[in-house]
Amino acid sequence: MTNQEKITLIEETLENDGGTLTENTQLSDVSEYDSMGKLTLIVLCDDEFNKKLTGEQIRNFVTVKDVLDFMG
Amino acid sequence: MILNPMDLTNKKILVVGATSETGETITNQLLNLGAEVVMVDDNEERLITIADKCNNPRLNFNCIDIYNNQEIESGMKQMAANFGAFDGLVFCAGKGGVRPLQLTKNNFLHNMMNANLYSFIEVVRCLTKKGSFNNGGSIVVISSVSSIKGLKSKISYSASKAALDASVRGMAAELSEKKIRVNSILKGWVTSDMKLDFIQDNMELNKNEDFAKQLLGVIEPIEIANTVSFLLSDATKTITGISMLHDGGYSL
Amino acid sequence: MQQLISFQEKVILITGASAGIGQQTAILLSNLGAKVILLATNEDKLIETLGLLNGTGHQYFCYDLSNLEEIENKVKEIVTQCGKIDGFVNCVGIRSRRPLSLLSIKEVRNVMDINFGSYIELVRCITKKGNFNSGLSIVGVSSIAAQAGGPGVTAYAASKAAVEAAVRCLSKELAPKNIRLNTVVPSQINTPEYAKLLQMNGGVDNVLNRQYLGLGEPDDVANAIAFLLSPASKFITGVSLPVDGGYLSS
């Protein structure tokens, strides 16, 4: 999956409008990235990428790029 | 002479899901109260470890994949053949899990229902056939306070537990003919829950407010074991079809 | 003068709309000004129901809800053709009566998939961004069986209880999107389904003894559904409202 495809997936899952996120977007600026959003991301990483995302790791994510890097 | 209303001497109890921390604690307590216990679960290694630790002639076990419906019928027949008719069943197997609505596809729902409901129904259906379960016996299943209280992202889990409790009421009505009682325990947060599934582990969603709601603090597995023993014993001969809260005040 | 309950220009989707409670609800909502979207499996019955509605702008869609995979596409199609959804009433469901000894898991799963699985999938799809309007109200139809134990209804009771529990969770989860969910909990209601059941039992129904207001009418349930759909009930969410002639409390 390309980075753009991953970004689109994140946007869809968090129910953002398409085209709002870039690699450099600060997660703290994304209103849908609340505690529900974080949980959704954890499930998504498990479902789609088979990767277990821990609370600690998620706390260290600052930008969208950090998430993409994790997804691998 | 000291009377113990929870005495389980001469009672043969099947514990399904015995290898979890709560399951093991229940097994031990039932043995302490004089029962003969047969453990069932899908983890043979753990079953052997527990049996060795207990070192009790009243304890036996059998390895069955309880989440595989096809195996249950033959498994239960085997139990009755090997050990004779049972006086009690404790069903403490099941799965937990959190998932927000948008990612709750039918597959996830089905797996949750299968682990928490279908397996239970199938076990009871097979075990209460003639010759496998004595009249006057007692069935106890571990449910959850989620059955009656809504939490975000717990749709599948809550639904499966509510369905479980509804089936308990149905079974209680049907099995009353044979004087078999069926009840569930609505447990709140137990210390062993903390070690569950990584998603629950990391969930900041409901956690802190949730624990605070449990006014009397987190529950120890031995307390659940005691409530189970209470419902299995003759002390509760006329209690049936109930979902007994054991939640430290959570649902107040 | 303002009416307490009115659905002028509101788009309301109703499943199980071609008979019983679903049909009566569709008629009532059409009388109250709604644009009604009927969903059911039988086209003839759908056309018949369409003919009973008042007002214009109503539509029907044929779909078998036991097919869970295609629900997402169906909802997209409905929204594209009819507009964003303001209300959703789920009246689809199958009855099941089997003694425990003959209750196969296959049967339990079938009942669960239709009564509960399709409801969750529909809610999941309808509440996706762009498919609904703010203020969306969702009403499911449960049953007294969810609370009251009886022989032979284990699978049915379990499926209805699952819906009620899901509603408690969903109402909390979806509140930030200004969506409400509730269920109505009817006891015995005078529908063709009930008539069949009564006939099978030789005309005897002991449930009616406890249901001291007598046999209910589809109207009674439709009225409660309309209330829960309307802004008049905007502070009510996550509840299971008995419409049961006194059954559960007696």
Can you describe what's shown?
The complex is a heterotrimer of chains A (72), B (252) and C (250). Chain A contains four helices and no strands. Chain A is mainly α. Chain A has one domain: Non-ribosomal Peptide Synthetase Peptidyl Carrier Protein, Chain A, CATH 1.10.1200.10. The radius of gyration of chain A is 11 Å and the shape is globular. Chain A starts with a helix and ends with a helix. In chain A, 24% of the residues are buried. Chain B is an alpha/beta fold. Chain B has one domain: NAD(P)-binding Rossmann-like Domain (Rossmann fold), CATH 3.40.50. Chain B is built from eight helices and seven strands, in the order βαβαβαβαβαβαααβ. A seven-stranded parallel sheet of chain B has the order 3-2-1-4-5-6-7, sandwiched between helices. The longest helix of chain B is centred in the middle third of the chain and has 22 residues. Chain B starts with 11 loop residues before the first strand and ends in a 6-residue tail after the last strand. The model of chain B has no long low-confidence stretch (mean pLDDT 92). Chain C is of the alpha/beta class. Chain C has a single domain, classed as NAD(P)-binding Rossmann-like Domain (Rossmann fold), CATH 3.40.50.720. Chain C is built from eight helices and seven strands; from the N terminus they run βαβαβαβαβαβαααβ. Chain C has a seven-stranded parallel sheet with strand order 3-2-1-4-5-6-7, sandwiched between helices. In chain C, helix 1 crosses helix 8.
Layout: helices, strands, pairs:
The complex is a heterotrimer of chains A (72), B (252) and C (250).
Chain A: H1 3-14, H2 35-49, H3 55-60, H4 64-71
Chain B: E1 12-16, H1 21-32, E2 36-41, H2 44-54, E3 59-63, H3 69-83, E4 86-91, H4 106-127, E5 133-144, H5 155-175, E6 181-187, H6 198-201, H7 207-213, H8 221-232, E7 243-246
Helix pairs in contact in B: 1-8, 3-4, 4-5
Chain C: E1 11-15, H1 20-31, E2 35-40, H2 43-52, E3 59-62, H3 71-82, E4 85-90, H4 105-126, E5 132-141, H5 154-174, E6 180-186, H6 192-200, H7 207-210, H8 218-229, E7 240-243
Parallel strand pairs in C: 1-2, 1-4, 2-3, 4-5, 5-6, 6-7
